[in-house]
Amino acid sequence: MASTKHLAYIDYSFGNISIRIKQNQSSFLTGTTIWDASHVLSDYLNNIFRKKSNSISKPPLQGKYCLELGSGCGLTGILVTLLGANTIFTDRQDTLFILEDNVGSNIPNFSKTQKEFKNIDTTKELEGDNTTFAGQALVKELDWEQPVSKDIYDPETPDHIEYDYVLAADCVFNIEMLDPFINTLVHVCGPHTQAFVAMERRDADVINSFLTRVEERGFTWNRIPKSKLLKVDGVAGVVEVYKLRVKKTRK
User: Fold this and answer.
1) How many Å apart are CA 162 and CA 62, to the nearest integer?
2) Three-state SS at 233
3) Tens digits of residue pLDDT in 159-178
């Protein structure tokens, strides 16, 4: 990431999908530049979702709902949206400016409200070129240290969404933020949700503590083999990706 932080824009290609990400080089906020974990997670998801698809014409994630936590510049969420998913991007208020810029410049389908987002027709044929199978996009504020907004997750409301996938890249790096992050995962992951969490191995104690705590909070986890992950600028093995599922016995 250090080699690209000075760039105003970074271009990414995932098969037939091209994404241009804007960075804010002058900001000291963690969510305004691209981190390696986001690139590695995006590449991995692009590969597995395309392989799972049994249709040439139908987008791999059409009709699926994704929630991205700590979206930052939005690379991973943008990718899955361009693969057909209907995606809610979330982050703190102070980083939404860069997130909204990137989502708006890469995805044509914006929803203004949760109700509009929920009620779109996900079965119709989608058209376009680079945005070939773009799903719907919604950008929302979400601070893990605050209660999760009811318009992001509330089973009691008619507009409630059960997420198929929850995505998070480089959200595990600070021991003090582990519990707020895990609390959010517990809140938004349903019995059928698959969560993919990518992180750089900066501090083994932080990662080990995260894995211990998510187990205690009712998740199972599997580490994705390094052989299946993109090698970025010689940092292979530094980025780790974990797949989390809610235990069937979790109350």
Assistant:
1) 15
2) coil
3) 678 899 999 999 998 999 99
CA torsion angle for 139, 192, 190, 138 (degrees, to 10)?
A: 10
Look up the pTM and report it. 0.88
- 105/72 Cα distance (integer angstroms): 15
Bridge partners (DSSP) listed for residue 242: 197, 223
Strands (DSSP E) contained in the chain are 9-14, 17-22, 65-69, 86-91, 137-141, 165-169, 194-200, 219-223, 239-246
Single-letter amino acid, residue 154: D
Of residues 84, 74, 218, the one with CA closest to residue 139: 74
Q: Which of 205, 234, 207, 246 is nearest to 223 (CA)?
A: 207
Judge residue 57's burial from the number of C-beta atoms within 10 Å of its C-beta, 0-12 exposed, 13-18 middle, 19 or more buried: exposed
Contact 94, 114 (CB under 8 A): no
Tokens matching residue 193: 């949700």
Least Cα distance to 222 among 203, 193, 250, 194 occurs for: 194
110 DSSP assignment: B
**Helix H or strand E encompassing 43:** helix 36-52
Domains of the chain: residue spans and CATH: 9-246 (3.40.50.150)
Residue 192, Cβ neighbours under 10 Å: how many?
Answer: 10
Encoding tokens for residue 243? Answer: 């797949």
Task: Flag whether pLDDT at 235 surpasses 90.
Answer: no
